[in-house]
Structures are given as C-alpha cells and as structure tokens.
Amino acid sequence: MFRSPVRRRILLRSTAGLGRALQALMLVLAFSVACHAEDGGVASRGSLEAKLEYCKTCHGLSGQGYRGYFPMPRLAGQQPQYLENQLRAFIERRRTNPIMANVAHVLSPSMVSALAAHFKSLDPKPIGGAPRGSLAVGKRIYEEGIPEANVPACSACHGTDGRGQNEIPRLAGQLYDYTVGQLGGWAKVRGQGSAVDTSAIMAPTAHNLSRSQVEAVAAYVGYLQ
Amino acid sequence: MTVTPFQICGGRKHGARQRGIMKGIGWKLVVLAIAGSIAPALAWDGGDSRVRNCTWCHGTGGQGYTVAPRLAGQRSQYIESQIRSFREHTRDNPFSKQYMWGAVAALAPQDARDLAAYFASIPAKPADDGDRGLAARGRTIYLEGIPEANVASCYACHGPNAEGVRDIPRLGGLAYVYLKTRLEQWGQGYHSGVGTPMPIVARSLGPAEVEALASYLSFVR
Fold first, then answer.
1. What is the distance between the alpha carbons of residues A53 and A122, in angstroms, rounded to a whole number?
2. pTM above 0.90, yes or no
3. Which residues of B92-111 are buried (b: 16+ CB within 10 A; e: fewer)?
4. Fold of the domain spanning A45-223
5. A31 in reach of chain B (CB within 8 A)
6. Is the ipTM of this complex over 0.85?
7. Predicted local distance difference test score (pLDDT) of residue B47
8. How far is CA B212 from CA A126, B16, B163, B175, in A?
9. Chain B contacts of A57, Cβ < 8 Å?
10. Tell me, what CATH number does B159's domain have?
C-alpha cells in the first residue's frame, strides 16, 4: 500500500480522505452482517435498568471499565453504533470471549439497541494505570502512523481526540490491558467465522504493529480524556 | 456453629477472660500454629507474636477456624485491603465489628503488609465442607453466571480456578458457612469495601444459588 515514498506522502496528507473512504466501505460491511430480527417492542424500563446494573457490575459502576481476572473494557462515552455491532458480534460468535458471549446471547434486539444508546452520555475519568514510559512514542503513532510499517494514523479514523464516530470506537480512556489484548490478538479474537465484518478494517493495522508499538499506543489512548 | 472460642476471645472488654482462655485452649492453638507453620522463613515467622495474634483465632497456619476465615493462600493485596476496611470500620458486619475492628486497631501499616505477605505465602487447604450434590450447579453459575437473571459470572473477576488476582480474593476452598454468610450479608446491606461490585452481585443471588456457589467453592483447591 505505502510502497513508493511519493504515494506514501500523498496518502499521509490525505488520511482524512482515507478515513472517509474506508468508512463508506465499513458501512457496507456493517449492513451485510446486521440482519435485525424482529422482537416484541422496546425493552421495558425496569428490565433495562436491571440489565444496566448488571453490565456495570463488570464494566465499572460508571461504565469506566474494571480490572477483574479479565480486563473489562470501558463502555462510558462509547459510540452506540459500535456497541451495537459488538454486541451482535458476541451473539454471533464473531467475537470469541466466552464471558461476553454468555452475557449477550440472551439479549433481544431491542434490548441491544437500548443498552448501546445508554453509555454515550457517561463521562467518568479514565481509570489510568498504564505505563507512562512511552507516551510520546504512542502519541506519534496515534497522530502520524508508522509509514514504513504500513500503519496509518489512528487519528484518521478514531478522531484526533480518540472519541470515534459511528462504527469506529472511542479509544479515549480505554483500559490499557484491554487495548493491548485486542490489538495483540486481533486475528484470533475478532472477525471469526466466514462472514466479513467491520473488524476487517482494523486487521492489517493490528497485524503490522509490533508488541512495543501496541503497548505505546495503548498507553497513550488510555490517558486521553 | 461453634462460636464459643470467639465469644470469649473477641471484644476488647473481655481482656481478662481472653488472657484466661489463652492459658487454656489458646496455648494449644499457639503451639500448633508454630509447629504447623510451613511458610518460607521470615525473620519473625510463626514464632513471632504478631502472627500468633492472628492465628489464635484464624487457626493453625492461618487455615481458618470456625467463623474466622482461612487466610492461608489469600491474595496479599486483598488481605491488606480488608485490614484497612476493618480499621476504617467500612467492613461492618457483626463478626467483623466484634472480632476484627479490635484485632487491627493497633496494627502498624508495615506489620499489616508483612502479615499479609506471610499469610499469602502459606499453601491453602480446601475446607471441603459444602454439599457435594450442589457443587455441579455451583460450578455452572460460577463460570457462566445466569445471564437471563442478571447474575454475573464470578469467573470474570475471581479467575477460572477461583484463585483471585491482585485485590480480588481467592475463593477456592474457603469454608461453606463463611462463603454463604458473606454472600448473604451483602444482600442484607452490610459492606466490606467502598465502591466494590459485590453488593450488586450478591443482591442478584437467591438462597439456592448462594448454597450452590458456597458448596462448589468449598471444594476448589
């Protein structure tokens, strides 16, 4: 992709354009896997509240994320469209985590939508705890990418503030261990099975990052507010 | 439930009776505590009076005794966090108040750290005292939760073998009655830390689930 230096410069200058183009592709992909089933109307208020309390047992009482035996990602401030995609990915076993697969398979489509919409307005502080040694390296990767390794700037898609949009997740304030785990094992934990989904957009980027680059960028986004 | 030693060794008001008891059954416990200590040698090891102050309720080698839970093999960060909770009176159930508020009132922070590291280093023996017939159900709830009833999987925080991590406690092999009582007390509104998830987890459990979980966990090694 970034073979010639000239093309590389052009591509780097037009990362915003790249982002938009990929976003269009993503929308197509998203629709191809999002087959809504009909269910009996909107989730009732009481059952929604009980369900949210349950989600927050694991994901932190304000959705800020929590370090259990597994890192449980921050959901606060997350894009509803992204959350909905991921809950469906757990239901359809395109994401493999056994704990979330159990949680998600009992959720009706209307409950999935109601839950996904809830977290956007929450804004607790990041829980922190990431190593601070390579924040500057992480910031450079986030804002400029690593052209020689075919790694695009993350900010092109995830936004300069790391808040994402639509299908592109917020990374700001995400748990360090969680981000490291996802980027380090992308091909094994996301996009499983034969259907192509939105996780394909991130696959080459995750693949091209070395372990230490993953750690640097995960630490950087973990401190973004 | 045999609570007799505790009714005597507990509150600070009973200082005289406590010393009396020390001469009786207390001594046996102390001797056993010293003999039974298999932890790596620390300068002050099992012979240290600071350890004896704990094992004389918590049993030989910290393996637990009636209502005082096993400390052997517990996560050191968790032990320290609970010592803080007792000292700050956040952990507020009747036994905590009666026995532990006093026991840690004068414990220096460095001693708390040393004791936590010491007990964490002793291999834990499982209590094996639950109902075997309920263990399979307990294991399923432990691993999967009950998603349709909003019961969270314990595995997600306490680990695949109930071994705990950082300040999340090991549950495997704790005594049935202790586990059951703890889970019931969160449901009744008692606390053990600030902002921990356990009150919500415990409120989602009915009596049958509590018995199944406590049974299963008592056998985990």
1. 14
2. no
3. bbebbbebbbebbeebeeeb
4. Cytochrome Bc1 Complex; Chain D, domain 2 (1.10.760)
5. no
6. no
7. 64
8. 37, 42, 18, 13
9. 152, 197, 200-201
10. 1.10.760.10
